[in-house]
Specification:
Catalytic activity: (R)-5-diphosphomevalonate + ATP = isopentenyl diphosphate + ADP + phosphate + CO2
Mean pLDDT: 93
Family: Belongs to the diphosphomevalonate decarboxylase family.
Number of strands: 18
Bound molecules: ligand DP6
Shape: globular
Keywords: ATP-binding, Cholesterol biosynthesis, Cholesterol metabolism, Lipid biosynthesis, Lipid metabolism, Lyase, Nucleotide-binding, Steroid biosynthesis, Steroid metabolism, Sterol biosynthesis, Sterol metabolism
Radius of gyration: 22 Å
Largest sheet: 7 strands, mixed
Number of helices: 9
Strand content: 15-25%
Distance between the termini: 8 Å
EC number: 4.1.1.33
Low-confidence stretches: none
Structural class: alpha+beta
Domain Mvd1 C-terminal: 200-378
Helix content: 25-40%
Order of helices and strands: EEEEEEEEEHEHHEEEHHHHEEHEHEE
Amino acid sequence: MPENDKQGLSVVTCTAPVNIAVIKYWGKRDEDLILPINSSLSVTLHQDQLKTTTTVACSRNFQQDRIWLNGKEEDINNPRLQSCLQEIRRFSRKRRNTGDSTSDASSVSHKVHICSVNNFPTAAGLASSASGYACLVYTLSQLFGVESEQLSAVARQGSGSACRSLYGGFVQWKLGTQLDGKDSLAEQVESESYWPELRVLILVVSAEQKSVGSTSGMHTSVETSQLLKYRADVVVPSRMEEMIRVIRERDFPAFGELTMKDSNQFHAICLDTYPPIFYLNNMSHRIISLVHRYNQYYGETRVAYTFDAGPNAVIYTLQDHLPEFVQVVRHFFPPEVNGEEFVKGLTVCSADLSEELKRDINMEPTPKGIRYIISTKAAQERWTHN
Ligand code: DP6
């Protein structure tokens, strides 16, 4: 419940997590409602390492809606922000009219001041729109007393991938068939506790800021890539079924292989886009080689990579293989010795590497190719605290 002081100021603060897709969303059939051309599936990450925190205040004394992102005021007239604000206010009015609302009856007509911060540096090149819009929509819903299964449809209108950050664990976003997008919603496939051995590493590579944002990138792909149509019509429907099955069976080799193939197909579509889009850089390619050589050494998929619209790798692996793989990364990408820790987040035990493994991988080390690693895992969705 929002805080209420004598000046009629209500304040709510919430947090929301980042999610990383293993079946990628790429392409819209409706750009205004943000309706995708294919379903997607992601893993929600732990908020101790990556989260957005949003505070929304509402008061009858506020003259206009305003928003600050990481301390800097941004344009509240951004159409996606406006869609989210309008939708939540519409839901709130609807609930009030049906007598369901727990919120202060007048607050929905008051202006809001929104303040949103991430606990991870924007410069790291990690997508923040998913956690950002999920957090905005959830915080507004708490302030205005909106409880709705449609919240993910509202977050979706901020940024497609944001709808998946409203749930924890393994989450699918079903593309839906309705024109109004009411059935284009996220839902949980399994909770984070279903597969506790699954671990996640984010390898933050040395790179400039990404050149093409996902919104404009996927727009050009829809316009120009013939592969994209094949992916949406033929590949993804069966991959979604298979991904859900391998998660339910906790079959890591199958999960890892499918995750890598789907990431590769997404980047193949970026190359098939005209003009082509390059999100991966040399360091990303080296990480891909390292993962395949490591898996080849063991004759099974122990580690899997996935890349979004940027060069950073997200690695999925199992707890048992984590220490050795981190040591492999440290060996082949010797970090800068600057006093800063190389592995941030969840502790990773140390491990020894055999000479045979190093020899078999047979790669030239690339000093300082990876700036740092964020060690994390799957987790639940969000918490409210006032
Ligand atoms: C490559 O959700 O950022 O991360 O809907 O235009 O805001 P908009 O795009 P966005 O796209 C994410 C694309 C991706 C894949 C994914 O997360 O599924």
